[in-house]
């Protein structure tokens, strides 16, 4: 696919989202992670993307006889040809259906993950997440830990292994503006796509917004200075316009925001294989939007999802959006959380 094709728009020129909208679904039967869960809650993280070809199922496709008559092609090569064939057929029939494979990568372990595990979720949500950090760690716009960097390097090697098996790298890359994702994407893909790794930094891919300082992004200038090859989307403000120190975004509001991010990708990027480096909450919302079963993704892991998008006439159906929530009341003394130790000092919230 040419660069011009990848940058083409999927919705006809002059057609706005008030006249049509995307309806998403997950195409089953291609990745193990999309299969119905054996767990009663529909959640598991037992499929190791590093050890299982990213979960790609060993199967045949209708195009195998023509594309691979000698049976010499790899599973990835045959699958990628099948996806391209599906889209080519839709294009030839003037269909309004688009297929993409999304590689949803969660950032590696961050300083905030360690802090929440140490203090416990109750103390974290009511007190510690409001702070910039403690005496030993800073988690505002949280950075990766050394463990998180090692997780990203493991995923880098997993990609390299799959490339050796015939897998193509994604044609487009998108990343949340929070630092833990910016660094995860860099460690994961730099060197695989050459020295000019330049993902698109997209505001709407960020984690649940509000209250937690780990989810308040740095300003645009700082992001561009640290990652000069990254392309920041148009309209990206210098300072964080979304984070609120008193209100936290509801899950249903986050779903709407992540659908908007998907809509932008499907509308303006014709790439058929797309990488998205984001967060647990953001990926949870993407899975909800595309009708995928819940899947608990470990830090540093990757979840591929085969998505079908249909352009449906008419405006987006109305959604019930829950209001934001405020800081919960502490159930105990948060200063005594964490193995019973009292932390002597915290870095206070800036004015």
Fold and architecture overview:
Helix content is 30%, strand content 13%. With 351 residues, it is an alpha/beta fold. It has a single domain, classed as Phosphoglycerate mutase-like (Rossmann fold), CATH 3.40.50.1240. Strands 1-8-2-7-4-5-6 form a seven-stranded mixed sheet. Strand 5, helix 8 and strand 6 form a beta-alpha-beta unit. Helix 6 runs parallel beside helix 7 and helix 9 packs across helix 10. The relative contact order is 0.22. The N terminus and C terminus are likely disordered.
The top-level CATH class is Alpha Beta
| Annotated CATH topology | Rossmann fold
Domain count:
1
- Could you state the CATH homologous superfamily? Phosphoglycerate mutase-like
Count of helical regions: 10
The 3D shape can be described as: globular
Largest beta-sheet details: 7 strands, mixed
What is the radius of gyration computed over CA atoms, rounded to a whole number of angstroms? 21 Å
Class by SSE composition:
alpha/beta
Give a topology summary.
Elements: H1 3-6, E1 20-26, H2 64-67, H3 75-92, E2 97-106, H4 111-119, H5 121-126, E3 133-134, H6 146-164, E4 172-175, H7 179-189, E5 200-201, H8 220-226, E6 231-232, H9 251-268, E7 273-278, H10 280-289, E8 302-313, E9 346-347
Parallel strand pairs: 2-7, 4-5, 4-7, 5-6
Antiparallel strand pairs: 1-8, 2-8, 3-9
Helix pairs in contact: 6-7, 9-10
State the main characteristics:
single chain, about 350 residues, alpha/beta, 7-stranded mixed beta sheet, two-stranded antiparallel ribbon, disordered C terminus
């Amino acid at each position: 696919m040419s660069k011009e094709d990848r940058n083409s728009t999927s919705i006809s020129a002059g057609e706005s989202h008030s006249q049509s909208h995307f309806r998403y679904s997950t195409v089953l039967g291609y990745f193990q992670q999309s299969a119905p869960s054996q767990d009663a809650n529909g959640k598991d993280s037992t499929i190791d993307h590093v050890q299982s070809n990213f979960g790609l199922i060993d199967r045949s496709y209708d195009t195998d006889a023509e594309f691979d008559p000698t049976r010499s092609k790899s599973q990835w090569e045959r699958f990628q040809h099948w996806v391209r064939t599906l889209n080519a057929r839709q294009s030839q029939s003037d269909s309004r259906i688009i297929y993409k494979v999304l590689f949803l990568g969660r950032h590696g372990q961050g300083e905030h993950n360690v802090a929440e595990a140490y203090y416990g979720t109750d103390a974290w949500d009511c007190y510690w997440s409001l702070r910039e950090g403690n005496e030993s760690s800073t988690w505002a716009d949280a950075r990766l830990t050394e463990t998180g960097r090692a997780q990203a390097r493991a995923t880098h090697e997993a990609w390299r292994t799959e490339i050796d098996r015939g897998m193509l790298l994604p044609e487009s890359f998108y990343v949340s503006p929070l630092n833990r994702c910016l660094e995860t994407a860099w460690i994961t893909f730099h060197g695989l796509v050459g020295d000019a790794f330049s993902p698109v930094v997209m505001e709407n891919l960020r984690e649940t917004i509000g209250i937690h300082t780990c989810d308040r992004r740095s300003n645009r200038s700082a992001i561009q200075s640290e990652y000069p090859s990254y392309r920041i989307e148009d309209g990206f403000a210098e300072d964080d316009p979304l984070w609120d120190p008193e209100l936290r975004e509801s899950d249903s509001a986050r779903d709407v925001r992540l659908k908007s991010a998907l809509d932008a990708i499907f509308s303006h990027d014709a790439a058929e294989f797309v990488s998205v480096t984001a967060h647990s909450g953001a990926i949870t919302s993407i899975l909800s939007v595309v009708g995928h079963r819940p899947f608990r993704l470990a830090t540093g892991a990757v979840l591929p999802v085969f998505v079908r998008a249909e352009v449906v006439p008419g405006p987006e159906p109305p959604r019930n959006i829950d209001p934001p929530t405020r800081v919960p009341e502490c159930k105990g003394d948060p200063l005594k959380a964490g193995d019973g130790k009292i932390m002597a000092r915290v870095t206070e919230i800036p004015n």
